[in-house]
Amino acid sequence: MSKPMPEKPTVDGLEDVWGPVWEQDGTYRFDRSAAGDRAAVYSIDTPPPTASGSLHIGHVFSYTHTDLKARYERMRGKHVFYPMGWDDNGLPTERRVQNYYGVRCDPQLPYDPAFVPPFEGGDTKSSKAADQLPISRRNFIELCERLTVQDEQQFEHLFRTLGLSVDWTQSYRTIDDTSRASAQRAFLRNLERGEAYQADAPTLWDVTFRTAVAQAELEDKEMPGAYHGLAFHRTDGWDDVVIQTTRPELLPACVALVAHPDDERFQDLFGTTVRSPLFDVEVPVLAHHLAQQDKGAGIAMVCTFGDTTDVVWWRELQLPNRAIIGFDGRVRSDEPTWIASEQGKALYAEMAGKTVFSAKKVVVDALTESGELIGDVKTINHPVKFFEKGDKPLEIVSTRQWYIVNGARDEELKTTLRKRGEEIAFHPDFMRVRYDNWVGGLSGDWLISRQRFFGVPLPVWYPLDADGNPVYDQPIVPTEDQLPVDPASEPAPGYEESQRGVAGGFQGELDVMDTWATSSLTPQLAGKWESDPALYDLVFPYDVRPQAQDIIRTWLFTTVLRSQLEADVVPWKHASISGFIVDPDRKKMSKSKGNVVTPLSILEQHGADAVRYWAASSKLGTDAAFDPQNPKQIKVGRRLAIKVLNAAKFVYGFPLPEGAHAVTEALDTDMLAELGSVIEQATAAFDGFDHARALEVTERFFWTFCDDYLELVKERAYGTATDATHETQASAVLALRAAIDALLRLLAPFLPFATEEVWAWTHETSVHRAQWPTASGLAAAAGPGAADRLGAGPSGLLAAVGQALIGIRGAKTAAKASQKTPVTRAVVAAPAETRALIERAAVDLAAVGRIADLSFTDGAELAVVDIELAEQPA
């Protein structure tokens, strides 16, 4: 034995016992030299959690699902490549740093090498920027680096406590030098192939974070609003044209009125012009199929820009850009050149500098006074677009941004991406429709530039002309061997730092990449793309991408896109999609809702195996409810882990009789045959990414094994049963040991700590490096001739005898007698076929029931029809 069998086995503290052993022994280390070729490897594109605070119970849920599959494939003989990354750049990290240290970034400030933050350990709740100390970009990034490292250490501790079989030598960070170089290399290749480009265009903009937002990061929220009727004046003298709008403050930005081409109400208006109320600006009336005849007045005011439909109209109808909203969400102060009337100029001056809400009041008051507000104001609730991490409605501003093509404007690429989706096996398959719908509904290329600080810099500079203006269409780029670079702090190739910002010199790009532009390269980052080609060839394309369902449109899609653009292949064969964790009210748990549960205390209270059991009980793609006040499933899992320890100790307590060499008895053979069927079912379930089914069939048999089989054969295994022989005793002990050996391996992915503890009592190596059980291996363990006896499959003997045992126990309970009470005589009735089965195990049934005279008779159903208990001593 590598570990003595304890007097009283316990699940408590097993994480502290076995975690260090696994690390020291390299139990889960990926051995690339032993792997040989790609066919021997099972590679996992593990989700890198965002290092911005704490993990929640949902992480435990989904990461356990991945670990179950990893452990199964390892036991099947695969060399499992199971890395862990940390997604430590992006807005969540910046916001956490701002609140944690009480600071905000001001790129204009100089670096302070002796800087000390005003405080440390904020409550991570949103705080006002005015209360935060402005610091330099470099100081801010240093704080980001410091805090993410702390978070990552806590995350790793939690994942180790959970028992994830990750190879911790294969970890990476999305902001380290290697990752930055990889992300910049991929971008430069996109640029070289014409897949990356920059453009001045309307951009969804978050006024709080002061950054552009991509289509995939949008979230609709129901918000109160109001329809206002505005009277536009026809230039031909006819009656006014009344439109309905929820954004009257954008009236100065109006560029057209639009109605559906089939709407008979406006046929005479198409091709004419009208003048806007208050500002008296002449705008055309045009036809477009996106106008909704049944919405509002049926004719819409097109402004630059009120919503994404305005952008479509602006682009397709070739309208002017009269944007009035600035990056801060306020009305711009510069006077619009298209407003000629003095009244209009004065009103705009009153709006300038105000928020959109204050500007709306100015306009509505003016419309009311002028009589151009028609009818009653109608209040409504309507969906408004937000940045998924923001708390203010998005605006649309005109900015210069970087994009990567994604098929939105390229039907050939879109068709290819759809086909790539068909090559991926989704688990469950119904999740595939989310990918298909996203690809089909793309409305613009992927905006990847962000006006933030802690991210991978876009590796470009721009030459400045003789007047000091940047020449954007002639970007300067580094060579790949110079990566990573930071154009904000390093001079452009061929220039000196003294030429920064000087006419004839250069200007560095200040924007960083969207965090998904780095995360979309996790297969490349983990596999050390370009820096370790031999490793990359061993793991890519990966076998599986596990992830959450809500980021199919972002992480899954963008990874497929980058792999297509770079290598013309899918990045993995399978995508396993976990469901959400919901609270007792069936609401999704999220930090923003404040209903998340931090898992470390749950793990410490109940044990990792118990928590893993709860997670494993749910199929992929299905949501699971979690009540921290009454975690029933976790309690069931702890009971199962304890039972594994106790049942195994009981089995190993039977010494193997000398000369024991084969399982011969019918009950033993039937139990092993049934276990062989369980092994085949569990194997098929794991192969089909159905870990919950594998657990279900294994657990059900395990309890039958403990409650029925162990009880039935224990007297024979002790050698005390009536008519027991050396051979029948040996048969019981061999069957018990063969079964517990197989069951430990079946349960190992689910209960890694309890099964490792038990395995160590009789083995020198880890159960997690043991071979996954097979029906043929079980037959071999049962000794000579057992394969033939097990080959016929289970006969139902164990189930029938188990039912008879329940009847005998029930009779004793009804008589208010102890189960240890001897039985003078018992008669069991059963249908002929069932009776024939039970009679084959009569000796074991009589022994466990303490029955002196056991007989059988025919009956319509299995039942104890007569029982006589021995007299109990006073």
Write the SSE topology.
Elements: H1 14-25, H2 32-35, E1 41-43, H3 57-75, E2 79-81, E3 84-86, H4 91-101, E4 103-105, E5 133-135, H5 137-162, E6 171-173, H6 177-192, E7 196-206, E8 211-212, E9 218-234, E10 241-245, E11 254-259, E12 273-275, E13 282-287, E14 299-303, H7 308-316, H8 342-351, H9 356-370, E15 373-387, E16 395-404, H10 411-423, E17 425-427, H11 432-440, E18 446-447, E19 449-450, E20 461-463, E21 506-508, E22 512-513, H12 515-519, H13 522-526, H14 533-539, E23 542-548, H15 552-567, E24 572-578, E25 581-582, H16 600-606, H17 608-616, E26 624-625, H18 632-652, H19 666-687, H20 691-718, H21 726-747, H22 752-759, H23 775-781, H24 786-791, H25 797-814, E27 823-830, H26 832-839, H27 842-849, E28 851-858, E29 863-869
Parallel strand pairs: 1-2, 3-6, 4-5, 11-13, 17-24, 23-24, 25-26, 27-28
Antiparallel strand pairs: 7-8, 7-16, 9-10, 9-12, 9-15, 11-14, 12-13, 16-18, 19-22, 20-21, 27-29
Helix pairs in contact: 3-17, 4-5, 10-11, 11-15, 16-17, 17-18, 18-21, 18-22, 19-20, 19-21, 19-23, 20-21, 20-25, 20-27, 21-22, 25-26
Key attributes of the depicted protein:
single chain; four-stranded antiparallel β-sheet; alpha/beta; ligase; 874 residues; 18% strand; elongated; seven-stranded mixed β-sheet
Detailed description of the structure:
It is a single chain. The two termini are 47 Å apart. The longest helix is centred in the C-terminal third of the chain and has 28 residues, at 691-718. It is built from 27 helices and 29 strands. The protein is of the alpha/beta class and 874 residues long. A hairpin with a 4-residue loop joins β7 (196-206) and β8. Strands 9, 10, 11, 12, 13, 14 and 15 form a 7-stranded mixed sheet that branches.
